[in-house]
Amino acid sequence: METPDYLTPNFRLHEFEQSVTASLKGYDNTVPQMAWGTLRHLCEAFLQPLRDRVKTPLVISSGYRCRDLNREVGGSETSWHLTGCAADFHPLDRDKRAEIIQLARLAREQWEVWKKDPAAGEQPAVQFTEFIVYPTFFHVAVAPEGTANRYVIKNYNGFGQGYRKD
């Protein structure tokens, strides 16, 4: 199978492989074929619809992580990044942060799919796992297609003591 270039119209596979830490440490952070589908699902279910709504590019700061890279950056041993189900990102237009947080809360409260088209009879299918608000970026994880999970929004407390639920 040929490596996909674009996952969605605005997200390319290589954006999820890039890592300064991996480059400096010599880690091969190439996304394995088994994670292509989960990354595409993450983009289709959350990132592309969010980008379309806020009308600004989303910069991926951390996408897929190989085990060595994940360990190096202090990621959890069960991190969603290991399977391509998570991404850390920030909007190119920093003024869009509040709007993104509002949309994440709306998604949790109304449990709607971002790209759902009721006129076409589409039903909610996306299961968000977590959305974490950090001072300079956001973390989002979307469960693989066909799985059920509860959507949790957390705010990093900024003091290195963990998270508080929204």
Describe the structure.
- The N and C termini lie far apart (42 Å).
- The protein is globular, with a radius of gyration of 16 Å.
- Helices cover 29% and strands 21% of the residues.
- The relative contact order is 0.14.
- By secondary structure, the chain is an alpha+beta fold.
- It has one domain (6-115, 122-165): Muramoyl-pentapeptide Carboxypeptidase, domain 2, CATH 3.30.1380.10.
- β7 and β8 (163-165) form a beta hairpin.
- The model has no long low-confidence stretch (mean pLDDT 83).
Per-chain topology:
Layout lengths: L5 E3 L2 E2 L7 H6 L7 H22 L3 E5 L4 H6 L13 E6 L5 H14 L17 E6 L4 E5 L9 E5 L6 E3 L1
Biggest sheet layout: 6 strands, mixed
CATH topology: Muramoyl-pentapeptide Carboxypeptidase, domain 2
Mean pLDDT: 83
Write down the secondary-structure element order.
EEHHEHEHEEEE
Shape summary: globular
| Low-confidence segments | none
> Which secondary-structure class do the elements indicate?
alpha+beta
Number of self-contained structural domains: 1
Work out the helix count.
4
| Helix proportion | 25-40%
State the strand order across the main sheet: 3-4-6-5-7-8
Give the quaternary arrangement of the chains.
single chain
Features:
two-stranded antiparallel ribbon, six-stranded mixed sheet, 4 helices, 166 residues, alpha+beta
In short:
The chain has 166 residues and is α+β, with helices and mostly antiparallel strands. It has 4 helices and 8 strands, in the order E-E-H-H-E-H-E-H-E-E-E-E. It has one domain (6-115, 122-165): Muramoyl-pentapeptide Carboxypeptidase, domain 2, CATH 3.30.1380.
